Amino acid sequence: MGCNCIKEIPQEIVEHSNTLADFKKTPAMSAKFKDLVFPFKDGKVTTALKTDVKIKCENRKTPKTTSVRFSYCPFCGQKY
Ligand SMILES: [Zn+2]
Questions:
Q1: Which residues, given as ranges, of the chain have pLDDT below 50?
Q2: Are 16 and 2 in the same domain?
Q3: Distance 1 CA to ligand 1 centre (A)
Q4: Ligand 1 centroid to 15 CA: how many Å?
Q5: Is 16 inside a domain boundary?
Q6: What's the CA-to-centroid distance between 23 and ligand 1, angstroms?
Q7: Are 43 and 22 part of one and the same domain?
Q8: Do 49 and 21 share a structural domain?
Q9: From the CA of 24, how far away is ligand 1's center (Å)?
Q10: What local confidence, expressed as pLDDT, does residue 52 receive?
Q11: How far does the centroid of ligand 1 lie from the alpha carbon of residue 80, in Å?
């Protein structure tokens, strides 16, 4: 993995959350991204973010869903 954003950004969110009045009675302890995948790269397990894509279909009220993995970190731009 080229960057530490997947680990560092949730830590920053916890720190920021604990400055807010809303978290005074129930302080934030930890946070993590919900949409992580663990692709193999050069024989090692890595971590990357993914996002869901809703596919609207003919004759169907609810969309079908698939997901795509980001090739680059959406925060700093480094290639995964
Ligand atoms: Zn990054």
A1: 1
A2: yes
A3: 9
A4: 18
A5: yes
A6: 27
A7: no
A8: no
A9: 30
A10: 96
A11: 8
If you measure from the C-alpha of residue 64 to the centroid of ligand 1, how many angstroms do you get, rounded to a whole number? 29
Number of compact structural domains in the chain: 2
Ligand 1 center to 65 CA (angstroms):
26
Range of the domain at 52: 33-71
> For residue 80, what are its two tokens?
């995964």
pTM for this model (two decimals): 0.76
Q: Which three-class secondary structure state does DSSP give residue 61? A: coil
Same domain, 44 and 26: no
pLDDT digits (tens, 9 = 90+) for 45-67: 989 999 999 999 999 999 999 99
CB 13 within 8 A of CB 6: no
